[in-house]
Sequence to fold (562 residues):
Amino acid sequence: MKTVTNVFDLRSTLGAWREKGQRIAFVPTMGALHAGHLALVDHARKSAGKVVVSIFVNPTQFGPGEDFERYPRDLEADAEKLRDAGVDLLFAPPVDVIYPPGFATTVHVAGVSEGMEGARRPGHFDGVATVVARLLCLVLPDVAVFGQKDAQQCAVVMRLVADLGLPVEVRVAPTVREADGLALSSRNAYLTAAERTAAPALFRALLVAQLVHELGEKKPEKVLKAFRLALETEPLISLDSADLVDAATMRPVEKIDRSVLLAAAVKLGRTRLIDNVVFGG
Amino acid sequence: MKTVTNVFDLRSTLGAWREKGQRIAFVPTMGALHAGHLALVDHARKSAGKVVVSIFVNPTQFGPGEDFERYPRDLEADAEKLRDAGVDLLFAPPVDVIYPPGFATTVHVAGVSEGMEGARRPGHFDGVATVVARLLCLVLPDVAVFGQKDAQQCAVVMRLVADLGLPVEVRVAPTVREADGLALSSRNAYLTAAERTAAPALFRALLVAQLVHELGEKKPEKVLKAFRLALETEPLISLDSADLVDAATMRPVEKIDRSVLLAAAVKLGRTRLIDNVVFGG
Fold:
Protein backbone atom coordinates (compact mmCIF):
# COMPACT_ATOMS: atom_id res chain seq x y z
CA MET A 1 0.00 0.00 0.00
CA LYS A 2 1.20 3.44 -0.97
CA THR A 3 0.47 6.44 1.26
CA VAL A 4 0.24 9.96 -0.19
CA THR A 5 -0.51 13.22 1.58
CA ASN A 6 -0.72 15.76 -1.26
CA VAL A 7 -2.71 16.28 -4.44
CA PHE A 8 0.24 15.96 -6.81
CA ASP A 9 1.23 12.50 -5.53
CA LEU A 10 -2.41 11.42 -5.41
CA ARG A 11 -3.00 12.43 -9.03
CA SER A 12 0.17 10.92 -10.40
CA THR A 13 -0.55 7.55 -8.74
CA LEU A 14 -4.15 7.56 -9.97
CA GLY A 15 -3.10 8.73 -13.44
CA ALA A 16 -0.66 5.84 -13.85
CA TRP A 17 -3.41 3.37 -12.91
CA ARG A 18 -5.90 4.95 -15.28
CA GLU A 19 -3.45 4.76 -18.16
CA LYS A 20 -3.36 1.01 -17.60
CA GLY A 21 -7.17 0.95 -17.76
CA GLN A 22 -7.62 0.18 -14.06
CA ARG A 23 -10.99 0.89 -12.47
CA ILE A 24 -10.78 2.76 -9.18
CA ALA A 25 -13.01 2.42 -6.11
CA PHE A 26 -12.86 4.99 -3.32
CA VAL A 27 -13.80 4.88 0.36
CA PRO A 28 -13.64 8.29 2.09
CA THR A 29 -13.28 7.99 5.88
CA MET A 30 -12.40 10.03 8.93
CA GLY A 31 -10.10 7.28 10.20
CA ALA A 32 -10.47 5.50 13.56
CA LEU A 33 -11.20 2.52 11.38
CA HIS A 34 -13.28 -0.43 12.50
CA ALA A 35 -14.82 -3.47 10.84
CA GLY A 36 -17.58 -1.24 9.41
CA HIS A 37 -15.03 0.68 7.37
CA LEU A 38 -13.32 -2.56 6.38
CA ALA A 39 -16.65 -3.84 5.05
CA LEU A 40 -16.75 -0.72 2.82
CA VAL A 41 -13.20 -1.50 1.68
CA ASP A 42 -14.29 -5.05 0.95
CA HIS A 43 -17.15 -3.75 -1.16
CA ALA A 44 -14.69 -1.45 -2.96
CA ARG A 45 -12.29 -4.33 -3.69
CA LYS A 46 -15.09 -6.26 -5.37
CA SER A 47 -15.99 -3.22 -7.51
CA ALA A 48 -12.64 -2.22 -8.99
CA GLY A 49 -9.03 -3.27 -9.54
CA LYS A 50 -7.63 -0.51 -7.35
CA VAL A 51 -8.92 0.67 -3.98
CA VAL A 52 -8.24 4.15 -2.60
CA VAL A 53 -9.10 5.10 0.99
CA SER A 54 -8.89 8.63 2.36
CA ILE A 55 -8.47 9.47 6.03
CA PHE A 56 -9.39 13.06 6.80
CA VAL A 57 -11.09 14.34 9.95
CA ASN A 58 -12.97 17.16 8.25
CA PRO A 59 -13.18 20.17 10.58
CA THR A 60 -16.01 21.87 8.66
CA GLN A 61 -18.54 19.14 9.38
CA PHE A 62 -18.14 19.46 13.15
CA GLY A 63 -20.19 22.14 14.87
CA PRO A 64 -19.01 24.28 17.80
CA GLY A 65 -18.99 22.11 20.92
CA GLU A 66 -18.90 18.88 18.94
CA ASP A 67 -16.08 16.36 19.24
CA PHE A 68 -13.64 17.54 16.51
CA GLU A 69 -10.75 17.86 18.94
CA ARG A 70 -11.32 14.59 20.75
CA TYR A 71 -12.31 12.63 17.62
CA PRO A 72 -10.10 9.49 17.73
CA ARG A 73 -7.02 9.67 15.47
CA ASP A 74 -4.48 6.88 15.01
CA LEU A 75 -3.04 7.01 11.51
CA GLU A 76 -0.50 4.27 12.10
CA ALA A 77 -3.03 1.72 13.34
CA ASP A 78 -5.43 2.73 10.55
CA ALA A 79 -2.75 2.32 7.87
CA GLU A 80 -1.95 -1.14 9.26
CA LYS A 81 -5.60 -2.19 8.98
CA LEU A 82 -5.89 -0.87 5.43
CA ARG A 83 -2.67 -2.61 4.37
CA ASP A 84 -4.01 -5.88 5.78
CA ALA A 85 -7.28 -5.31 3.92
CA GLY A 86 -5.42 -5.03 0.61
CA VAL A 87 -5.96 -1.30 0.02
CA ASP A 88 -3.75 0.05 -2.79
CA LEU A 89 -3.56 3.73 -1.90
CA LEU A 90 -4.10 5.69 1.31
CA PHE A 91 -4.69 9.42 0.89
CA ALA A 92 -4.07 11.05 4.29
CA PRO A 93 -3.89 14.79 3.66
CA PRO A 94 -3.27 17.45 6.32
CA VAL A 95 -6.01 20.09 6.67
CA ASP A 96 -4.22 22.63 4.44
CA VAL A 97 -4.11 20.23 1.52
CA ILE A 98 -7.90 19.93 1.58
CA TYR A 99 -8.44 23.58 2.52
CA PRO A 100 -5.46 25.56 1.20
CA PRO A 101 -5.19 29.27 2.03
CA GLY A 102 -7.87 31.18 0.10
CA PHE A 103 -10.27 28.24 -0.04
CA ALA A 104 -13.72 29.85 -0.45
CA THR A 105 -16.18 27.32 -1.85
CA THR A 106 -19.20 25.75 -0.13
CA VAL A 107 -21.40 23.09 -1.66
CA HIS A 108 -24.94 23.18 -0.28
CA VAL A 109 -27.44 20.42 -0.92
CA ALA A 110 -30.97 21.55 -0.07
CA GLY A 111 -33.90 19.18 0.55
CA VAL A 112 -32.46 15.91 1.84
CA SER A 113 -30.01 17.80 4.11
CA GLU A 114 -32.59 19.98 5.81
CA GLY A 115 -34.38 17.75 8.30
CA MET A 116 -33.05 15.46 11.04
CA GLU A 117 -29.27 15.78 11.58
CA GLY A 118 -29.23 18.77 9.21
CA ALA A 119 -31.69 20.67 11.37
CA ARG A 120 -29.92 19.72 14.62
CA ARG A 121 -26.35 20.28 13.38
CA PRO A 122 -26.39 23.53 11.39
CA GLY A 123 -23.70 23.55 8.72
CA HIS A 124 -22.89 19.86 9.19
CA PHE A 125 -24.07 18.75 5.75
CA ASP A 126 -22.52 21.78 4.02
CA GLY A 127 -19.23 20.57 5.49
CA VAL A 128 -19.92 17.01 4.36
CA ALA A 129 -21.07 18.00 0.84
CA THR A 130 -18.10 20.33 0.32
CA VAL A 131 -15.44 17.87 1.43
CA VAL A 132 -17.04 14.96 -0.44
CA ALA A 133 -17.31 17.06 -3.62
CA ARG A 134 -13.62 18.00 -3.31
CA LEU A 135 -12.50 14.44 -2.55
CA LEU A 136 -14.54 13.01 -5.42
CA CYS A 137 -13.15 15.62 -7.85
CA LEU A 138 -9.60 14.90 -6.68
CA VAL A 139 -9.90 11.12 -6.90
CA LEU A 140 -12.51 10.84 -9.69
CA PRO A 141 -13.16 7.20 -8.83
CA ASP A 142 -15.40 4.92 -10.85
CA VAL A 143 -17.14 3.82 -7.64
CA ALA A 144 -17.41 5.48 -4.22
CA VAL A 145 -18.63 3.48 -1.21
CA PHE A 146 -20.48 4.94 1.78
CA GLY A 147 -22.07 3.30 4.82
CA GLN A 148 -25.79 3.03 5.47
CA LYS A 149 -25.25 3.95 9.13
CA ASP A 150 -25.00 7.60 8.01
CA ALA A 151 -28.23 7.32 6.04
CA GLN A 152 -28.86 11.03 5.60
CA GLN A 153 -25.24 11.57 4.56
CA CYS A 154 -25.73 8.90 1.89
CA ALA A 155 -28.80 10.76 0.60
CA VAL A 156 -26.84 14.05 0.52
CA VAL A 157 -23.93 12.44 -1.34
CA MET A 158 -26.18 10.77 -3.90
CA ARG A 159 -27.97 14.06 -4.55
CA LEU A 160 -24.67 15.93 -4.82
CA VAL A 161 -23.14 13.46 -7.26
CA ALA A 162 -26.25 13.50 -9.45
CA ASP A 163 -26.55 17.30 -9.37
CA LEU A 164 -22.92 18.09 -10.14
CA GLY A 165 -22.90 15.35 -12.76
CA LEU A 166 -19.85 13.65 -11.31
CA PRO A 167 -19.09 10.44 -13.24
CA VAL A 168 -19.03 8.36 -10.06
CA GLU A 169 -21.23 5.42 -9.09
CA VAL A 170 -22.26 5.79 -5.44
CA ARG A 171 -22.74 2.52 -3.54
CA VAL A 172 -24.24 2.27 -0.07
CA ALA A 173 -23.05 -0.70 2.00
CA PRO A 174 -25.11 -2.11 4.91
CA THR A 175 -24.31 -1.25 8.51
CA VAL A 176 -21.93 -3.68 10.22
CA ARG A 177 -22.85 -4.66 13.78
CA GLU A 178 -21.30 -6.29 16.80
CA ALA A 179 -22.73 -9.68 17.76
CA ASP A 180 -25.10 -7.93 20.19
CA GLY A 181 -26.43 -5.60 17.46
CA LEU A 182 -24.52 -2.39 18.26
CA ALA A 183 -23.64 -0.61 15.01
CA LEU A 184 -19.88 -0.24 14.63
CA SER A 185 -18.79 3.37 15.10
CA SER A 186 -15.53 5.17 15.79
CA ARG A 187 -17.38 6.85 18.65
CA ASN A 188 -18.00 3.49 20.39
CA ALA A 189 -14.42 3.92 21.62
CA TYR A 190 -15.67 6.67 23.93
CA LEU A 191 -18.07 4.35 25.82
CA THR A 192 -17.43 3.18 29.39
CA ALA A 193 -17.89 -0.53 30.02
CA ALA A 194 -21.37 0.04 31.46
CA GLU A 195 -22.37 2.26 28.53
CA ARG A 196 -21.06 -0.33 26.09
CA THR A 197 -23.28 -2.96 27.73
CA ALA A 198 -26.28 -0.65 27.48
CA ALA A 199 -25.64 0.56 23.92
CA PRO A 200 -27.23 -2.33 21.94
CA ALA A 201 -30.62 -1.22 23.31
CA LEU A 202 -30.65 1.41 20.52
CA PHE A 203 -30.71 -1.17 17.74
CA ARG A 204 -33.11 -3.43 19.68
CA ALA A 205 -35.55 -0.50 20.02
CA LEU A 206 -35.29 0.21 16.28
CA LEU A 207 -36.12 -3.44 15.59
CA VAL A 208 -39.10 -3.29 17.98
CA ALA A 209 -40.42 -0.29 16.03
CA GLN A 210 -39.92 -2.10 12.72
CA LEU A 211 -41.74 -5.13 14.12
CA VAL A 212 -44.67 -2.96 15.26
CA HIS A 213 -44.99 -1.73 11.69
CA GLU A 214 -44.69 -5.22 10.27
CA LEU A 215 -47.53 -6.33 12.57
CA GLY A 216 -49.76 -3.78 10.82
CA GLU A 217 -49.17 -0.32 12.34
CA LYS A 218 -48.98 2.34 9.62
CA LYS A 219 -49.02 5.49 11.76
CA PRO A 220 -45.54 7.02 12.17
CA GLU A 221 -46.34 8.41 15.65
CA LYS A 222 -47.35 4.95 16.90
CA VAL A 223 -44.20 3.35 15.52
CA LEU A 224 -42.07 6.12 17.01
CA LYS A 225 -43.83 5.66 20.36
CA ALA A 226 -43.00 1.95 20.32
CA PHE A 227 -39.38 2.89 19.63
CA ARG A 228 -39.27 5.32 22.56
CA LEU A 229 -40.92 2.90 24.96
CA ALA A 230 -38.48 0.15 24.01
CA LEU A 231 -35.55 2.52 24.46
CA GLU A 232 -36.73 3.67 27.89
CA THR A 233 -36.03 0.21 29.31
CA GLU A 234 -32.34 1.16 29.25
CA PRO A 235 -31.68 3.88 31.86
CA LEU A 236 -28.11 4.69 30.69
CA ILE A 237 -29.45 5.79 27.29
CA SER A 238 -31.21 9.09 26.74
CA LEU A 239 -32.98 9.77 23.46
CA ASP A 240 -31.56 12.64 21.45
CA SER A 241 -33.74 12.36 18.36
CA ALA A 242 -35.87 9.95 16.40
CA ASP A 243 -37.17 10.60 12.90
CA LEU A 244 -39.32 8.55 10.62
CA VAL A 245 -38.96 9.82 7.06
CA ASP A 246 -39.37 8.83 3.44
CA ALA A 247 -36.22 6.82 2.67
CA ALA A 248 -35.66 8.70 -0.59
CA THR A 249 -36.53 12.32 0.21
CA MET A 250 -35.69 12.33 3.96
CA ARG A 251 -39.00 14.13 4.56
CA PRO A 252 -41.50 13.11 7.26
CA VAL A 253 -44.32 10.83 6.14
CA GLU A 254 -47.93 10.90 7.31
CA LYS A 255 -48.41 7.18 6.73
CA ILE A 256 -45.98 4.29 6.34
CA ASP A 257 -47.01 3.30 2.82
CA ARG A 258 -43.56 3.33 1.20
CA SER A 259 -39.95 2.63 2.10
CA VAL A 260 -39.16 4.63 5.23
CA LEU A 261 -36.07 5.33 7.29
CA LEU A 262 -36.32 5.27 11.08
CA ALA A 263 -33.19 7.08 12.23
CA ALA A 264 -32.28 7.80 15.83
CA ALA A 265 -29.55 9.46 17.83
CA VAL A 266 -28.99 8.73 21.51
CA LYS A 267 -26.67 9.90 24.22
CA LEU A 268 -24.72 7.62 26.53
CA GLY A 269 -22.92 9.96 28.88
CA ARG A 270 -21.18 12.49 26.61
CA THR A 271 -21.19 10.14 23.64
CA ARG A 272 -23.73 10.51 20.86
CA LEU A 273 -24.48 7.42 18.79
CA ILE A 274 -26.68 7.06 15.71
CA ASP A 275 -28.32 4.12 14.03
CA ASN A 276 -31.19 3.44 11.65
CA VAL A 277 -33.38 0.83 10.01
CA VAL A 278 -35.23 0.90 6.69
CA PHE A 279 -38.59 -0.83 6.28
CA GLY A 280 -42.00 -0.59 4.63
CA GLY A 281 -42.84 -0.10 0.96
CA MET B 1 -19.97 19.04 -35.90
CA LYS B 2 -22.13 16.81 -33.76
CA THR B 3 -24.94 18.30 -31.64
CA VAL B 4 -26.12 16.58 -28.44
CA THR B 5 -28.79 17.67 -26.01
CA ASN B 6 -28.55 15.11 -23.21
CA VAL B 7 -25.94 13.81 -20.78
CA PHE B 8 -25.86 10.27 -22.16
CA ASP B 9 -25.01 11.37 -25.71
CA LEU B 10 -22.53 13.94 -24.38
CA ARG B 11 -20.71 11.35 -22.31
CA SER B 12 -20.58 8.68 -24.99
CA THR B 13 -19.12 11.11 -27.54
CA LEU B 14 -16.54 12.40 -25.05
CA GLY B 15 -15.74 8.87 -23.86
CA ALA B 16 -14.97 7.70 -27.39
CA TRP B 17 -12.58 10.63 -27.90
CA ARG B 18 -10.87 10.03 -24.58
CA GLU B 19 -10.30 6.38 -25.40
CA LYS B 20 -8.36 7.57 -28.44
CA GLY B 21 -6.27 9.79 -26.16
CA GLN B 22 -7.77 13.07 -27.48
CA ARG B 23 -7.41 16.19 -25.37
CA ILE B 24 -10.64 18.13 -24.94
CA ALA B 25 -11.12 21.90 -24.69
CA PHE B 26 -14.44 23.35 -23.59
CA VAL B 27 -16.09 26.74 -24.08
CA PRO B 28 -19.30 27.21 -22.06
CA THR B 29 -21.56 29.93 -23.52
CA MET B 30 -25.11 31.25 -23.30
CA GLY B 31 -25.35 31.39 -27.11
CA ALA B 32 -26.09 34.54 -29.15
CA LEU B 33 -22.57 33.98 -30.37
CA HIS B 34 -20.34 36.75 -31.67
CA ALA B 35 -16.70 37.10 -32.62
CA GLY B 36 -15.78 37.25 -28.91
CA HIS B 37 -17.06 33.71 -28.41
CA LEU B 38 -15.36 32.61 -31.62
CA ALA B 39 -12.07 33.93 -30.26
CA LEU B 40 -12.60 31.64 -27.23
CA VAL B 41 -13.27 28.77 -29.64
CA ASP B 42 -10.08 29.65 -31.48
CA HIS B 43 -8.15 29.56 -28.22
CA ALA B 44 -9.75 26.17 -27.48
CA ARG B 45 -8.79 24.77 -30.90
CA LYS B 46 -5.16 25.65 -30.25
CA SER B 47 -5.29 23.91 -26.83
CA ALA B 48 -6.74 20.50 -27.68
CA GLY B 49 -7.62 18.10 -30.46
CA LYS B 50 -11.35 18.29 -29.79
CA VAL B 51 -13.44 21.38 -29.03
CA VAL B 52 -16.75 21.23 -27.16
CA VAL B 53 -19.03 24.28 -26.88
CA SER B 54 -22.12 24.42 -24.71
CA ILE B 55 -25.03 26.76 -25.30
CA PHE B 56 -27.24 27.12 -22.23
CA VAL B 57 -29.02 30.27 -21.09
CA ASN B 58 -28.77 29.54 -17.39
CA PRO B 59 -31.90 30.78 -15.59
CA THR B 60 -30.35 30.70 -12.12
CA GLN B 61 -27.78 33.40 -12.88
CA PHE B 62 -30.45 35.95 -13.86
CA GLY B 63 -32.08 37.92 -11.09
CA PRO B 64 -35.75 38.94 -10.95
CA GLY B 65 -36.31 41.77 -13.44
CA GLU B 66 -33.18 40.90 -15.40
CA ASP B 67 -33.27 39.94 -19.08
CA PHE B 68 -33.61 36.13 -18.89
CA GLU B 69 -36.75 36.10 -21.03
CA ARG B 70 -35.52 38.53 -23.66
CA TYR B 71 -31.95 37.22 -23.72
CA PRO B 72 -31.22 36.61 -27.44
CA ARG B 73 -31.56 32.96 -28.54
CA ASP B 74 -30.88 31.66 -32.05
CA LEU B 75 -29.60 28.09 -31.86
CA GLU B 76 -29.57 27.55 -35.62
CA ALA B 77 -27.45 30.60 -36.36
CA ASP B 78 -25.16 29.75 -33.42
CA ALA B 79 -24.70 26.17 -34.62
CA GLU B 80 -23.82 27.46 -38.09
CA LYS B 81 -21.12 29.74 -36.64
CA LEU B 82 -19.66 26.95 -34.51
CA ARG B 83 -19.62 24.55 -37.46
CA ASP B 84 -17.75 27.14 -39.52
CA ALA B 85 -15.32 27.64 -36.63
CA GLY B 86 -14.48 23.93 -36.65
CA VAL B 87 -16.13 23.01 -33.36
CA ASP B 88 -16.41 19.24 -32.88
CA LEU B 89 -19.31 18.98 -30.45
CA LEU B 90 -22.14 21.31 -29.50
CA PHE B 91 -23.89 20.55 -26.20
CA ALA B 92 -27.23 22.38 -26.24
CA PRO B 93 -29.26 20.98 -23.36
CA PRO B 94 -32.79 22.03 -22.42
CA VAL B 95 -33.23 23.42 -18.90
CA ASP B 96 -34.39 20.09 -17.44
CA VAL B 97 -31.21 18.34 -18.54
CA ILE B 98 -29.12 20.77 -16.53
CA TYR B 99 -31.64 21.02 -13.68
CA PRO B 100 -33.62 17.75 -13.60
CA PRO B 101 -36.54 17.42 -11.18
CA GLY B 102 -35.19 17.20 -7.63
CA PHE B 103 -32.03 19.20 -8.38
CA ALA B 104 -31.02 20.67 -5.00
CA THR B 105 -27.35 21.67 -5.07
CA THR B 106 -25.86 25.17 -4.92
CA VAL B 107 -22.17 25.94 -5.22
CA HIS B 108 -21.21 29.14 -3.42
CA VAL B 109 -17.84 30.80 -3.84
CA ALA B 110 -17.23 33.39 -1.12
CA GLY B 111 -14.64 36.17 -1.34
CA VAL B 112 -14.14 36.97 -5.03
CA SER B 113 -17.90 36.76 -5.67
CA GLU B 114 -18.94 39.15 -2.93
CA GLY B 115 -18.14 42.63 -4.23
CA MET B 116 -19.04 44.36 -7.48
CA GLU B 117 -21.51 42.39 -9.61
CA GLY B 118 -21.97 39.93 -6.76
CA ALA B 119 -23.16 42.67 -4.42
CA ARG B 120 -25.43 44.23 -7.06
CA ARG B 121 -26.86 40.99 -8.44
CA PRO B 122 -27.64 38.79 -5.41
CA GLY B 123 -27.46 35.11 -6.30
CA HIS B 124 -25.87 35.77 -9.69
CA PHE B 125 -22.54 34.14 -8.92
CA ASP B 126 -24.16 31.22 -7.09
CA GLY B 127 -25.99 30.59 -10.35
CA VAL B 128 -22.76 30.90 -12.33
CA ALA B 129 -20.70 28.74 -9.95
CA THR B 130 -23.35 26.01 -9.81
CA VAL B 131 -23.87 25.74 -13.57
CA VAL B 132 -20.13 25.94 -14.31
CA ALA B 133 -19.41 23.25 -11.71
CA ARG B 134 -22.05 21.00 -13.28
CA LEU B 135 -20.90 21.66 -16.85
CA LEU B 136 -17.25 21.06 -15.94
CA CYS B 137 -18.12 17.80 -14.14
CA LEU B 138 -20.22 16.65 -17.12
CA VAL B 139 -17.60 17.49 -19.75
CA LEU B 140 -14.41 17.05 -17.66
CA PRO B 141 -12.35 18.90 -20.26
CA ASP B 142 -8.57 19.25 -20.13
CA VAL B 143 -8.94 22.98 -20.76
CA ALA B 144 -11.87 25.39 -20.27
CA VAL B 145 -11.80 28.84 -21.85
CA PHE B 146 -13.53 31.92 -20.44
CA GLY B 147 -13.54 35.55 -21.57
CA GLN B 148 -11.83 38.41 -19.73
CA LYS B 149 -14.87 40.64 -20.33
CA ASP B 150 -16.55 38.83 -17.43
CA ALA B 151 -13.55 39.39 -15.18
CA GLN B 152 -15.24 38.65 -11.87
CA GLN B 153 -16.80 35.51 -13.33
CA CYS B 154 -13.32 34.37 -14.35
CA ALA B 155 -12.12 34.88 -10.78
CA VAL B 156 -15.09 32.89 -9.43
CA VAL B 157 -14.50 30.05 -11.88
CA MET B 158 -10.77 29.87 -11.12
CA ARG B 159 -11.50 29.76 -7.38
CA LEU B 160 -14.19 27.11 -7.87
CA VAL B 161 -12.00 24.85 -9.99
CA ALA B 162 -9.11 25.11 -7.52
CA ASP B 163 -11.36 24.53 -4.49
CA LEU B 164 -13.26 21.54 -5.86
CA GLY B 165 -10.00 20.15 -7.24
CA LEU B 166 -11.39 19.72 -10.74
CA PRO B 167 -8.64 18.49 -13.09
CA VAL B 168 -9.30 21.33 -15.55
CA GLU B 169 -6.93 24.06 -16.72
CA VAL B 170 -8.82 27.36 -16.83
CA ARG B 171 -7.70 29.82 -19.53
CA VAL B 172 -8.86 33.42 -19.75
CA ALA B 173 -8.87 34.91 -23.27
CA PRO B 174 -8.68 38.66 -23.88
CA THR B 175 -11.80 40.71 -24.66
CA VAL B 176 -12.54 41.05 -28.38
CA ARG B 177 -13.60 44.53 -29.52
CA GLU B 178 -15.21 46.22 -32.49
CA ALA B 179 -12.95 48.56 -34.47
CA ASP B 180 -14.27 51.47 -32.38
CA GLY B 181 -13.39 49.73 -29.09
CA LEU B 182 -16.82 48.44 -28.00
CA ALA B 183 -16.42 45.06 -26.31
CA LEU B 184 -18.36 42.38 -28.15
CA SER B 185 -21.41 41.27 -26.19
CA SER B 186 -24.60 39.41 -26.97
CA ARG B 187 -26.40 42.33 -25.34
CA ASN B 188 -25.06 44.76 -27.97
CA ALA B 189 -27.90 43.40 -30.13
CA TYR B 190 -30.34 45.30 -27.89
CA LEU B 191 -28.80 48.72 -28.72
CA THR B 192 -30.54 51.27 -30.95
CA ALA B 193 -28.40 52.86 -33.68
CA ALA B 194 -27.83 55.96 -31.55
CA GLU B 195 -26.93 53.88 -28.48
CA ARG B 196 -24.56 51.78 -30.58
CA THR B 197 -22.78 54.96 -31.70
CA ALA B 198 -22.49 56.14 -28.09
CA ALA B 199 -21.43 52.77 -26.61
CA PRO B 200 -17.65 52.90 -27.32
CA ALA B 201 -17.40 55.78 -24.85
CA LEU B 202 -17.34 53.12 -22.10
CA PHE B 203 -14.05 51.60 -23.26
CA ARG B 204 -12.59 55.05 -24.07
CA ALA B 205 -13.33 56.17 -20.50
CA LEU B 206 -11.67 53.02 -19.12
CA LEU B 207 -8.58 53.81 -21.21
CA VAL B 208 -8.58 57.40 -19.95
CA ALA B 209 -8.57 56.10 -16.38
CA GLN B 210 -5.75 53.67 -17.16
CA LEU B 211 -3.76 56.52 -18.75
CA VAL B 212 -4.27 58.71 -15.70
CA HIS B 213 -2.73 55.93 -13.59
CA GLU B 214 0.11 55.43 -16.06
CA LEU B 215 0.87 59.17 -15.83
CA GLY B 216 1.50 58.67 -12.11
CA GLU B 217 -1.83 58.70 -10.23
CA LYS B 218 -1.93 55.94 -7.60
CA LYS B 219 -5.13 56.91 -5.75
CA PRO B 220 -8.10 54.74 -6.76
CA GLU B 221 -10.61 57.56 -6.16
CA LYS B 222 -8.72 59.90 -8.52
CA VAL B 223 -8.54 57.26 -11.24
CA LEU B 224 -12.24 56.47 -10.80
CA LYS B 225 -13.02 60.18 -10.98
CA ALA B 226 -11.16 60.46 -14.30
CA PHE B 227 -13.21 57.48 -15.55
CA ARG B 228 -16.49 59.11 -14.54
CA LEU B 229 -15.59 62.47 -16.06
CA ALA B 230 -14.60 60.84 -19.33
CA LEU B 231 -17.84 58.86 -19.38
CA GLU B 232 -19.99 61.94 -18.72
CA THR B 233 -19.08 63.33 -22.13
CA GLU B 234 -21.54 60.81 -23.60
CA PRO B 235 -25.10 61.78 -22.60
CA LEU B 236 -26.73 58.52 -23.80
CA ILE B 237 -24.69 56.54 -21.27
CA SER B 238 -25.47 56.48 -17.57
CA LEU B 239 -23.01 54.96 -15.15
CA ASP B 240 -24.31 51.95 -13.27
CA SER B 241 -21.16 51.00 -11.35
CA ALA B 242 -17.40 51.37 -11.41
CA ASP B 243 -15.05 49.39 -9.20
CA LEU B 244 -11.31 49.40 -8.88
CA VAL B 245 -10.16 46.21 -7.19
CA ASP B 246 -7.17 43.94 -6.72
CA ALA B 247 -7.12 41.86 -9.91
CA ALA B 248 -6.61 38.63 -7.95
CA THR B 249 -8.87 38.99 -4.90
CA MET B 250 -11.53 41.32 -6.39
CA ARG B 251 -11.30 43.41 -3.21
CA PRO B 252 -11.00 47.23 -3.22
CA VAL B 253 -7.45 48.61 -2.98
CA GLU B 254 -6.33 51.69 -1.09
CA LYS B 255 -3.47 52.37 -3.48
CA ILE B 256 -2.72 51.22 -7.03
CA ASP B 257 0.52 49.39 -6.24
CA ARG B 258 -0.30 46.04 -7.81
CA SER B 259 -2.27 44.63 -10.73
CA VAL B 260 -5.78 46.07 -10.52
CA LEU B 261 -9.04 45.60 -12.36
CA LEU B 262 -11.14 48.62 -13.25
CA ALA B 263 -14.55 47.17 -14.06
CA ALA B 264 -17.60 49.20 -15.01
CA ALA B 265 -21.23 48.66 -15.90
CA VAL B 266 -23.27 51.26 -17.77
CA LYS B 267 -26.82 51.61 -18.97
CA LEU B 268 -27.79 52.66 -22.49
CA GLY B 269 -31.56 52.81 -22.39
CA ARG B 270 -32.64 49.46 -20.91
CA THR B 271 -29.42 47.75 -21.90
CA ARG B 272 -26.69 47.11 -19.38
CA LEU B 273 -23.17 46.69 -20.72
CA ILE B 274 -19.98 45.80 -18.87
CA ASP B 275 -16.31 46.18 -19.68
CA ASN B 276 -12.99 46.30 -17.85
CA VAL B 277 -9.29 46.97 -18.10
CA VAL B 278 -6.40 45.57 -16.06
CA PHE B 279 -3.35 47.70 -15.27
CA GLY B 280 -0.76 48.51 -12.61
CA GLY B 281 1.55 46.17 -10.76
About this structure: Chain B has two domains: 2-173, 186-279. DSSP finds ten helices and ten strands in chain B. Residues 2-173 of chain B form a domain with the Rossmann fold fold (CATH 3.40.50.620). Chain B touches chain A at residues 7, 11, 100, 102-112, 129, 133-135, 137-138, 140, 159-160, 162-167 (CB under 8 Å).
